[in-house]
User: Which sequence fits this backbone?
């Protein structure tokens, strides 16, 4: 049956930033599809609710605390995960974040911090997990980028640049790791989460007016796209960037307005 191709039964998935928002939504969606989960955040306690949700769905879950900006910690995280489950079939690089500042008011410290959180973390986790997948001769990496990586991003210069780097990393890794590992990225639009909600609510009307589907995104919208890319339903898909954004075309001034609120 064709729908069986969307099953993740027997798979082990690692999701970074799994404590809330899009990461939590992806972890729970994968568990519902049959995967066991390695839930990663800065501290293991931050993923308690996610782990409980995975277990409620009848799947195994491991909580790991890791600063994914630090290579040594990432290597230890992957070692722990492999000791517990023996394999890693799916990696979702979801960790990210931004600082709202106009370009000329962005310090080097802020610039470096945003690049480390978004681009360096994605590189380090991919580099640590890929050898495990190559040994298995199978694996999938899904990077969570942003639509702001392909449009002007006033007020979030470092974020747009870092995520554009994630896009490039995605395309290059797809070539270097093929044919055994598929690598794709999702570029979400404005998704309402516990973290982004207060800022998005302030510009909700502008976003919804410029969006054909007339609503903000939800974590499950991104989780469904991630499920497609993680499952064998997308076995002939690699090196691709998927914009999941309700059809919105061009709203750079919204980011500028958000920056002005900070």
Assistant:
């Amino acid at each position: 049956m064709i729908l069986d191709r969307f099953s993740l039964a027997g798979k082990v998935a690692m999701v970074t930033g799994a404590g809330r928002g899009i990461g939590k939504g992806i972890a729970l969606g994968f568990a519902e599809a049959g995967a066991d989960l390695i839930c990663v955040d800065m501290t293991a306690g931050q993923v308690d609710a996610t782990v409980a949700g995975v277990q409620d769905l009848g799947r195994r879950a491991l909580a790991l605390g890791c600063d994914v900006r630090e290579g040594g910690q990432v290597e230890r995280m992957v070692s722990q995960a492999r000791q517990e489950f023996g394999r890693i079939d799916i990696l979702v690089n979801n960790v990210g974040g931004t600082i709202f500042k106009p370009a000329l008011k962005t310090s080097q410290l802020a610039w470096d911090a945003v690049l480390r959180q978004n681009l360096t973390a994605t590189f380090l986790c991919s580099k640590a997990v890929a050898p495990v997948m190559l040994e298995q001769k199978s694996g999938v990496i899904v990077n969570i980028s942003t639509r702001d990586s392909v449009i002007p991003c006033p007020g979030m210069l470092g974020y747009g640049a870092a995520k554009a780097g994630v896009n490039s990393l995605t395309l290059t890794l797809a070539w270097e790791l093929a044919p055994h590992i598929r690598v794709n990225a999702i570029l979400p639009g404005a998704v309402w989460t516990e973290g982004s909600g207060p800022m998005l609510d302030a510009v909700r009307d502008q976003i919804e007016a410029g969006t054909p589907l007339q609503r903000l995104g939800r974590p499950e919208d991104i989780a469904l796209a991630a499920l497609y890319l993680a499952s064998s339903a997308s076995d002939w898909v690699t090196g691709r960037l998927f914009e999941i954004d309700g059809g919105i075309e061009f709203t750079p001034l919204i980011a500028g307005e958000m920056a002005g609120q900070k």
User: Anything to note?
Assistant: The chain has one domain: 2-260.
